[in-house]
Amino acid sequence: MANEAIAVGHRWPDRTATVEAGALRAFTKATAAEPADADIAPPTFLFTLDLFANAGQRMWVEELGVDLAKVLHADQAFGYRRPVRADETLTIESRLSERYDKKGGALQFFARECVFRDGDGAQVATMTTTLVVRHG
Amino acid sequence: MDRVQVGDVLPAITRGPITRTTLALFAGASGDHNPIHVDIDFARAAGLDDVFAHGMLSMAYLGQLLTGWRAQGKLREWNARFQAITPVGATVTCSGEVTELFDVDGERRARVRINAMTDGHVTTLAGEAVVAIG
Questions:
Q1: Chain A within 8 Å of B65 (Cβ-Cβ)?
Q2: Which of A31, A43, A77 lies nearest to residue B26, judging by beta carbons?
Q3: Which pLDDT tens digits describe chain B residue by residue (134 residues)?
Q4: pTM of the predicted model, to two decimals?
Q5: Cα separation of B2 and B45, whole Å?
């Protein structure tokens, strides 16, 4: 069962990550993109930036104590105040924003919300990842 | 640019076919190293016939649908629900249609229904975007 100690509102340690130009080029190639401006991070790159910031450490879903083999990505959402550009360093704040069950607990949902801030502390974007754990 | 109206259809885009090379490149470039997308031995041990594409790869394609329609700086918010897996070899077509026009803080915005569909006619991702227009 999932770790009950991690409740809605639980805050993970802030992380920082730099949007590297080479990483943007690799992402652009891997997604067959033809960007109008190669220095702007594509809309879903924030998801990757968060993974890069977390590289080598336990993923949040592992901390929840669930079986990774039973986890599926249910929903992904983004909100933007402005585009993110190459060479920017962003701070990522994250917290557990939702957890709920469906089908009598057979499906457990967890949502993690991230807030991306620039060097001035201004909010640049938000991202919410919802995962579902299938039991039985 | 022409005035946006409810019912307008975004220029569709098609990507793929998605090869194993596509998935290997995306695993490295996206930071999503889940072996279920690149290691057939792992996938079989998990009871699947084969690896399948990252959901976030198709969401990146949906992002291209949106930024191909309006400049990226106009994209306010969007989401996608992952409804079905995308198999190796699939071609993915991304489509969108304007469903509503509204104003927020004096800014004209369009709500756009978006989806990704495989050449097997399976809807893999479905969602909604809010884009500034005008």
A1: no
A2: A31
A3: 569 999 999 999 999 999 999 999 999 999 999 999 999 999 999 899 999 999 999 999 999 999 999 999 999 999 999 999 999 999 999 999 999 999 999 999 999 999 999 998 999 999 999 999 98
A4: 0.96
A5: 53
